[in-house]
Amino acid sequence: MTTKYVLAISGNDIFSGGGLYADLSTYAANDLHGFVAVTCLTAMTENGFEVFGIDRTIFNHQLQSLKDVPFSAIKLGLLPDVEIAELALDFIKGHQEIPIVLDPVLVCKESHDVAVSALRDELLKFFPYVTIITPNLVEAELLAQTTIETLEDMKATARRLYELGARAVVVKGGNRFSQEKAVDVFYDGTTFEVLEYPVLESNNVGAGCTFASSIASQLVLGRETHQAVRLSKEFVYQAIKHSDHYGVKQHHDQS
């Protein structure tokens, strides 16, 4: 039985633009009831935008509290460390009858340190158990261990992520290749599609979170994966177009 219950396993954005705030707002916009298991807290400190993982025991208590809720989809966002990711993976393995969307946020993805490498290896373990993954360019490069400089590179990386176990992939290109249009690439093992929309100057904090949550919502509403991605691209475009212009520009993007 399909319910209107959707779970976000995601972080708390101190500026309330991305993370669980974007997830819950997106679910509500689609007339769905959102639940949250919080993976981390964030704060702006003298070191910049910092992420503080939730205690493993507390996170596990959250998941156990929700294990009997009849969810119709799950969206995974920021998993701050391997321990939290392991618990999240165990949880979704018990929910294989519903759509699961993984937005593979890599904390401190600008630095190729040991922690990022370990988390990358852990995120790869999710691929066979989720419906679709939605990395941005930097995340896709880290996950596929490649470099993206062209649209053809995006396609090759999407194919590589599929070969690594993902059932479907959207590589979010943003405006790296053009200041006039945002470009994403969808691939499901059979079909490539390039999705292009004009770049907007409005506040776009949380766009990545919104995109993944919208896909989860559309899957609950009965859309096929490909159609869910198309509709979500339009949803995010409209959300940015009509957003306020006063959103805080974060130093760290957790969307």
Automatic annotation (TrEMBL):
Pfam families: Phos_pyr_kin. GO terms for biological process: thiamine biosynthetic process. It is an enzyme of class 2 (transferase). Its EC number is 2.7.1.35. Keywords: ATP-binding, Kinase, Magnesium, Metal-binding, Nucleotide-binding, Transferase. It catalyses: pyridoxal + ATP = pyridoxal 5'-phosphate + ADP + H(+). It comes from the Bacteria. Residues 13-247 form the Pyridoxamine kinase/Phosphomethylpyrimidine kinase domain. GO terms for molecular function: ATP binding; hydroxymethylpyrimidine kinase activity; metal ion binding; phosphomethylpyrimidine kinase activity; pyridoxal kinase activity. GO terms for cellular component: cytosol. NCBIfam families: PRK12413.1. Belongs to the ThiD family. This is pyridoxal kinase. It comes from Streptococcus ovuberis.
